[in-house]
Amino acid sequence: MRTIALANQKGGCGKTTTAINLSACLAYKGKRVLLIDLDPQAHATMGVGVKVEDLTRSMYEVMLEGASIEDIALEVRPLMDIAPAAVVLGAAEQRLAGVDGRENRLLNALGMIHKAYDYIIVDCPPSIGLLTFNALRACNEAMIPIEASFFSLWGVGRLLDMIDLIKEELSHEVRYKALCTIYDGRSKFSAEIADDVFSNFKDRVYETIIHTNVKLREAASYGMPITEYSRRSRGYREYLKLANEVLREEARVSVEEAVQTSVDKPVKEIYGPVPVPGGVLFRINAPGAHSVSLIGNFNGWAESVTMNDDDDDGVWIAIARLDPGTYEYKFIVDGDWRNDPSNPVDVDDTHGGKNSLVVVK
Asked: CA-based angle 309:286:282, to the nearest 5?
């Protein structure tokens, strides 16, 4: 399950529009999605057609009274639920001031969810406060919508400071990427801001650019995601493209989560195959190598799986999606076939040598 917070302290940057339409497009692609509205303005709630005045329970009860998210969640589209907000949520930060564990309220609530969601998308308020802190504490990823304006780009600095604080103080790393929104292709200034975003964020920015589109505004006013309102619009094509980008990240994100270091169990210091969500994590220490791959009888010893050393520490990693069974494998390090030096279990191959062995249960 991926948890993504949509955050930027500046309002009007397309944050809620993105939360609604990314959620809808992911559901349209067959993923089960929970959209959590953590903004007291409740725009995401209204944007999917829920009447706020009819709500009897909302995220206020979750954050303040320990209610279950599943008890308040509403199914608004096939495969898409929303945990709605209400105006009373605006009192949450004041009510929680001085309360022990106030920064973990959303994290604890997500831990009690039993429904098998593929994605949880959290729409944060346009501020850097306790609600946004809760969202970043509970999520592993942050998507930062940046409109083509100076103030939107300037406001990102405080958000990144909060992400750094969470990492330093709570040992919780939030992966973040920027998204260019409300882009006017006719404006030179929009192009300059987009260039600044791509220059500053480098590989931490989505390729998709969300242009100014009247159909997106109309869809929100009717309480409909763009997937229902207009599939012929530019807004639909761009949010579907964004959803496809997010889906393509799944394999990489699984690897990053599997190797994320924790205080109690530093994963990258332990080698050999390890079961992780989505498959089996393989690792080998090969400092100085130019290319490393994984090969085995699970792919007929034909097409190798490319391994990565993204942080340049010499530990190469890959996840193979293996069904239950017994598999033989080897690493290929700069063309040299090697057994797994950290796995003592091996079997004879047909050439007088050995293959490493892994059993998947």
From this structure: 65
Residue 293 corresponds to which amino acid?
S
Alpha-carbon separation of residue 349 from 333, 339, 354 (angstroms): 19, 11, 5
Can you tell me the distance from the alpha carbon of 25 to that of 241, in angstroms, rounded to the nearest whole number? 9
In this structure, are 296 and 236 located in the same domain?
no
Model confidence pLDDT, tens digit, residues 195-230:
888 888 888 999 999 999 999 999 999 999 999 999
Half-sphere exposure of 59 (CA within 13 A, CB side): 34
Using CB atoms within 10 A of its CB, is residue 83 exposed (0-12), middle (13-18) or buried (19+)? buried
Same domain, 28 and 106: yes
195 and 273 both lie in a single domain: no
Same domain, residue pair 169 and 230: yes
pTM confidence score: 0.72
Give the pLDDT confidence of 156-185 residue by residue, as tens digits.
Answer: 888 899 999 998 888 888 999 999 998 887
| H/E stretch holding 47 | helix 43-47
| Residues whose CB is less than 8 angstroms from the CB of residue 79 and which lie 6 or more positions away in sequence, other chains included | 27, 30, 31, 32, 33
Q: Is residue 77 one of the residues assigned to a domain?
A: yes
